[in-house]
Amino acid sequence: MSYLKAHLERYSEQKTSSGRFAGYCIKVLQRCLAFGKRQHHPCRLEIEATCGKPYLHSKPMSIPIHLPGGDYHVTGFDTVSSIAEVIRDLESQLGLRSCRWSGYTLFMDDPINPGVKVPINHSAKICDVIAKWEGNVKPNNNQIPQVIGLTYQNFLHLSAQHDSMSGMEYKLSALQLHTEAMDGVHGMEMELATCLGAVMAQAVEGNCPDFLPSKPNNDTVKQLSDSIEKYIPPNIRDRCKDPNSKQQLIRDFAEIWSKFKDVSPQFLFQKYYSTVERWKYHKSTLFRGLYSHPKDGLKVAVCLNVTETRLTVINADTLVIMDAVDLDKITNFGGYPFSITLRINNKNISIMLVDKHKCYLLTELLASYCRLTHIVTRDGAS
């Protein structure tokens, strides 16, 4: 190592490109010694940056990080940057609180299963994450992009999450809740769905187009129909299949949307979040699975409701609570690939989930809550 340092220092100077490249190598070497070595070979993005002129930038590489609602933000990094550093830079640039208080984290697209997002360990180096992803992705798979996708979104639902939330946090949280509502995660009635859809339409698209129910314009009706497609969940729209019901939904949607004319998007995002916040299972994550009853061993279809302090087993058909466990009562837990076992006071509870990704996500969620509160150590997680 001393010979390498001496060699780089000998050629390091600012007049030539090779000298500046040597200076860049010294900085990378110092950061590597300070923050730990790499675990994987260089990724394609890293090779391309190194073949260029990396010494011209303090962070020679950049990647878009997707946000809830379809926006993205380009963040720079170098070959030694950790996920934690990337998240801190992103939070600073967007005006967000630390993920320790907001519950947000960075996800990557699963290299094998399209549409699946996996939370990333904050201590990992981002170039290691990209290199590992590139090694796992199947070539010529049209369903999966050949470039890694990163998404910054909420993962942990913390009790103090709404304290001191910034305007950007309200926006991102509202957009993520809206996406979940569109996917059917949050059940709601027609009236509430129409109202929340109109709030989101005003926040994203601006004022409602002029609409006269007595003299409907075809272009306006089409525009309103497109907005209903985007902002009202499919299970709600399916209730309005006949022409009269569809027309009534368009009228109601336009009427509510018009009431929010010229209201600022920041206020509307906060209103959307505050409304959803009152729902019973808002600050929790739901998983579907099969639960083996401790008494008779029969398997029952259930929903697992996970909060930062409690795990509740709810019958999926009757919505009756079948079991509830405080996280501080769990001594250890783990499982792979489709089931997870919780050990509570010398008793085991086994839950079968719909796929191994959900099992991994549930294990990571429990581990994250436990790390935050220093409750238990994780056992057997994959």
Provide a descriptive summary of the structure in words:
By secondary structure, the protein is of the alpha+beta class. The chain is 42% helix and 19% strand. It is built from 13 helices and 12 strands. It has helices at 2-11, 17-35, 44-51, 83-94, 99-102, 126-136, 167-182, 190-205, 218-231, 234-237, 243-259, 265-277, 356-373; strands at residues 61-66, 72-77, 104-109, 117-119, 150-154, 285-292, 299-306, 310-315, 321-326, 330-334, 339-344, 347-353. The protein has a 7-stranded antiparallel sheet with strand order 9-8-7-6-12-11-10, covered by helices on one side. It has a 5-stranded mixed sheet with strand order 2-1-5-3-4, with helices on both faces. Helix 1 (2-11) packs antiparallel against helix 2, helix 7 (167-182) crosses helix 12 (265-277) and helix 8 (190-205) packs antiparallel against helix 12 (265-277). The longest helix is centred in the first third of the chain and has 19 residues, at 17-35. The radius of gyration is 25 Å and the shape is globular. The two termini are 35 Å apart.
